[in-house]
Write a structure and sequence with these properties.
heterodimer; A: mainly alpha; 6 helices; disordered N terminus; B: alpha+beta; 5 strands
Chain lengths: 134, 389
Amino acid sequence: MAYEETSSEHAEHGHAHPNYLGVFLALCVCTVLSLVFDILPWSRATVAVLVLSIAVAKAQFVMRYFMHLKFEGRWKYVLLLPTSILACGLPLALAPDIGLHYYTVDVPQVEHSGELAEPIEVPEGTDAGEGGAH
Amino acid sequence: MSHSHHTPTVKMGLPIPNSKLGMWLFLGTEIMFFTAFIGSYIVLYFGSPGWPTDTHVTHINVIAGGINTFVLICSSYAVVVAHEAMGQRNFKRAWAWLAGTFVLACVFLGIKGLEYKGKFDHDILPGHIAETDQQAIDKVVNEMNLALDDWLNELIPGEEPPHAKRIALIEEIESDETDESRKETLKDFRRLDRQFNQLRDEVVDNKLTLPQVTHRLEDLRHIAYIETISGKVMVGVFDDGTLGAHGHEEEDHGEAHSETHAPGAGDTDPDRPQLAEGQVAIRTDGEWTTLPADQVTTKYFLYQDVLSSVHHPQPILYGNIFASTYFLMTGFHAIHVLVGMILFGLVLMQGPRLNEQWTDWVENSGLYWHFVDLVWIFLFPLLYIIPGI
């Protein structure tokens, strides 16, 4: 039964003729929109959400029509869902410590961020630091 | 009892060619590969307050990224048309569209190469970026030291240690047998070497701030030899209106320092005259002389070439992790583009011999190419647009 189902889907794939030019134009419009959002004086969060939404829309166009996933059988879920879930593993593992910490990051470059290398007044006649760099 | 006549004929496996299944399995691993990079980048970006976002500092070029996005979209379209033509057994048309894809891939890598050149020119490289003022000062000293060593090795070739070469250089200056032009070059080296030693000693004594080091470096770059209409020869810090321009740039774009470095805080020479249009100035023996620009007949900067390898000091907080993630993601993406070019190149090499046996190859290479496009679709907003908002 399962075989017959996928077979018919595959047959459908064989007759799929998406409007590639239309998809291409949609992708171009999306790219232009991304650049336009970049120069609009909207808030950072708004623009970030918009450009990422456009990226997701573009990815949908490419995957569904150019990669023909819209016309493929259900095997695509079996193949791609586990990898997509596993792919989130590393970012999720890093997020609590690196991205969502409640504590102040204690790294040297932050400790000295924006700090001037203050000059030290060396009394006349001393040779402080002489030879240190040689 | 026999059930044989009720058993349907079952074919095992998926209703797609094995090669296509293999490509999809490979793309599954690629999803995990790139998601790890992109996801880690996002986590690091949000977990590092002060992440470099100013495009003048990171030298990220949004227009170049946008053009490359368009180029990859065009190439993806070319691939699907080529695949369709293969299905229609129109191999000549398929070859032409694949050739177009190959050319577009070259354009993508060319633009990427230009972007990388910008990063290399400004030393935006992992492990090379100063993240504090002190690191920026130390970097200037190290790079100047290397630049002087290179020049010394050029002037006095051989395996002797630097101090022995410096002694040989002084002896050559004092020798009567050395011709005048060589003597002048050696004296130029000695002048810069002395200035560098003074700078290094003051840095070691912790006497200088970053703006002071920046202005000192700018002064050294502007030491010029000039001759005037009246035949007067002068060597000193020459200001043709560009002196200090780099320092002001830093004040404009240096995110980490705009609040703490007051404009002009590092200006070590308050006597520097304000130049009217058409005027230049030169500082010799601590005194500034202003003169009309058209009075200068000969002018060349003595140390601009030698100091070209010394980068403008610009601390970038989290600059090294930014550079690491940028090169990791875009570098692996570029390698994938190269692999795609090899896959298409093999088809193009068939020329008029291209036939239906290559249909699966073109389809699978196309799937791979679309995935490369897909990765860039996410890299473009994450690397180019969002940080610069």
